[in-house]
Amino acid sequence: PKTDIVFLKVHKSASSTVMNILFRFGETHNLTFAFPTGGGNQLFYPQRFMARFVQGFSPKSPRRFNILCHHMRFLQPEVQKVVSRSAIYFSILRNPVQLMESSFAYYKGTSAFSRARSLEEFLNQPYRYYNPTDSDSHYARNLMTFDFGFNPDGVVSAKRVQLMLKAIEASFDLLLISEYFDESMVLLKETLCWDLDSIVSFPLNIRDGSTKSPLSNSIVEKIKDWNRLDWEIYTHFNRTFWERIDRDIGRERMRWEVKALRERQAELARTCLQGMGSVAPKDIKDSSLRPLQHGNAKILGYNLRQGLDNETELMCRRLVTPELQYSSALYKKQFAQKPP
């Protein structure tokens, strides 16, 4: 199994679920994480990543960390200072239409979105609300482009798009697609030589359907236009994702692998969860398992079944622990000698 990993955690793209998979694998295999100095859950985002943002990094003794997975704005020369040269780099993308709808709910408090009454109102006159010089403007336009380290307000030319796609391809071994999450996990398992249980997960940081708004065709087109760079990234890597499946796994075996993954997930849901599925924040009985609520989104969580034996309880708890709580627990474990 590969143990040196860089995950670029792109916002609102099922990346908290992926992070839980990395946290569990790292914890069970006693790996080291590149934590932000002083803990926390972002590597000084939205600044471009610097090696000195990592707790325990020193240019004099370049210590290598196994897993780098907290939110950052990608800058590869700096990333290379904290991980081994053989590290596998991967990220996950999401359709920019759903990404924008999700961001509008989740980041409602940001300067670009706070005054617009609806996503439609924002898109009808974006420059009435959006100022590229605002420090939080990146949440409102080409968010994936920004996370990969590029200029989200760049002119969309064929040449720029090609350079951007080539740069991403040169840096990353694997780009997953959140709309095909199970297929993505199978591809990740193959790339990392992991076993099935290492990539099993329950969806984390997901929104209650009641806060989602349906989008008309005209809004969809406006979102694509407004996020043209993201759209180019997404359509390109959605295509190469399926090309890779055809080349490395084949559709027939992929169907079989996805079926095995879903069966294992259902089995774990029966073992671990009260009522089999996610619940509203107010219904989560164990406050340590309650996810952070943000903007206008209502983030769901889980209740564990009662009466599990210790070993099963620990496994189940890891599967449903929200990102911030899990990150904080791992930080305390890794830097036990330092008071947090």
UniProtKB/TrEMBL annotation:
Q: Which GO terms describe its biological process?
A: glycolipid biosynthetic process
GO MF assignments: galactosylceramide sulfotransferase activity
Looking up Pfam families in the UniProt record yields:
Gal-3-0_sulfotr
Subcellular location, in the record's words? Golgi apparatus membrane
User: Aminoacyl-tRNA synthetase: is it a keyword of this entry?
Assistant: no
Q: Which domain of life is it from?
A: Eukaryota
Ordered alphabetically, the record's keywords are: Glycoprotein, Golgi apparatus, Membrane, Signal-anchor, Transferase, Transmembrane, Transmembrane helix
- Location (main, coarse): Golgi
GO cellular-component term (any): Golgi membrane
- UniProt-listed Gene3D superfamilies: P-loop containing nucleotide triphosphate hydrolases
Membrane topology per the entry is: Single-pass type II membrane protein
Family annotation (PANTHER family):
GALACTOSE-3-O-SULFOTRANSFERASE, GALACTOSE-3-O-SULFOTRANSFERASE 2
Describe the family membership recorded for this protein in Swiss-Prot or TrEMBL. Answer: Belongs to the galactose-3-O-sulfotransferase family.
Q: What protein name applies here?
A: G3ST2 sulfotransferase
Q: Which organism is it from?
A: Heliornis fulica (sungrebe)
Gene encoding this polypeptide? Gal3st2_1
